[in-house]
């Protein structure tokens, strides 16, 4: 089975970090940037890295970009170039096009172009950090919608030794533990009999209100 191939346009902090993570996950990555120095630095880590203008359709065709599974426009402050690059990827027929937006209006423009997913790295990270700051046991926060989220919570001392059945977050708080990170590995869909240990991390899904209630109760019991 062939590895999925990604083309990342723009190798700034976000684009470089994304590219390196995709490589670590075992995928093939073509990095494209106008900055020769940046491309030289990244060429040692990516499958391929090229100095090129991603708004030029013929240039992208010459790299075989149309055969890639996913195109990611990670261009920073140049909104015009970001939009033009997204247009080229859509025109080339890439299955999935993802683009970074630096403002709401930028995001709307990308959505109107038919970009499959628009991401706001700075905004999303700000939201996650804010939640981590106000909730001591919160390790990560992913907003699924305005009403629902997935969170990672460190098991507090007050819950150590208890089973999930005893806590019963689904019945008592309306949120579900969908995974449990233990030192021995990850338990997906844990049962009521699974015992919580010190250092465990619970992955919960539920409405924001219900998760907040659960977080508040375990924080108070510390």
Q: TL;DR of this structure?
A:
This protein is of the alpha/beta class and 222 residues long. The chain is built from 9 helices and 11 strands. A 6-stranded parallel sheet has the order 3-2-1-4-5-6, sandwiched between helices. A 5-stranded antiparallel sheet has the order 7-8-11-9-10.
Provide tags for this entry:
9 helices, six-stranded parallel β-sheet, 222 residues, alpha/beta
The N- and C-terminal alpha carbons lie at a distance of 49 Å
Shape category:
elongated
Order of helices and strands: EHEHEHEHEHEHEEHHEEEH
Radius of gyration: 21 Å
Ranges with pLDDT <50 over ≥5 residues? none
- Number of DSSP-assigned strands: 11
Query: Mean of the pLDDT scores?
Result: 87
Biggest beta sheet summary: 6 strands, parallel
Strand content: 25-35%
Provide a count of the helices. 9
Helix content: 25-40%
> How are the strands ordered across the major sheet?
3-2-1-4-5-6
């Amino acid at each position: 089975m062939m590895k999925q191939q990604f083309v990342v346009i723009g190798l700034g902090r976000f684009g470089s970090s994304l590219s390196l993570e995709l490589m670590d996950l075992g995928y093939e990555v073509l990095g494209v940037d106008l900055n020769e120095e940046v491309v030289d630095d990244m060429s040692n880590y990516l499958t391929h890295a090229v100095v090129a203008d991603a708004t030029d359709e013929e240039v992208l065709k010459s790299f075989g970009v149309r055969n890639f599974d996913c195109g990611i426009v990670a261009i920073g402050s140049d909104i015009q170039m970001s939009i033009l690059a997204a247009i080229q990827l859509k025109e080339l027929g890439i299955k999935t096009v993802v683009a970074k937006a630096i403002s709401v209006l930028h995001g709307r423009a990308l959505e109107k172009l038919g970009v499959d997913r628009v991401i706001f790295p700075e905004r999303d990270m700000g939201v996650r950090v804010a939640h981590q700051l106000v909730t001591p046991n919160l390790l990560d926060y992913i907003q699924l919608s305005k009403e629902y989220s997935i969170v990672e919570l460190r098991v507090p001392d007050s819950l150590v030794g208890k089973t999930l059945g005893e806590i019963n977050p689904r019945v008592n708080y309306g949120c579900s533990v969908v995974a449990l990170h233990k030192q021995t590995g990850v338990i997906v869909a844990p049962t009521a009999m699974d015992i919580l240990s010190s250092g465990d991390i619970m992955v919960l899904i539920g409405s924001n209100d219900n998760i907040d209630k659960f977080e508040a109760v375990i924080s108070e019991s510390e």
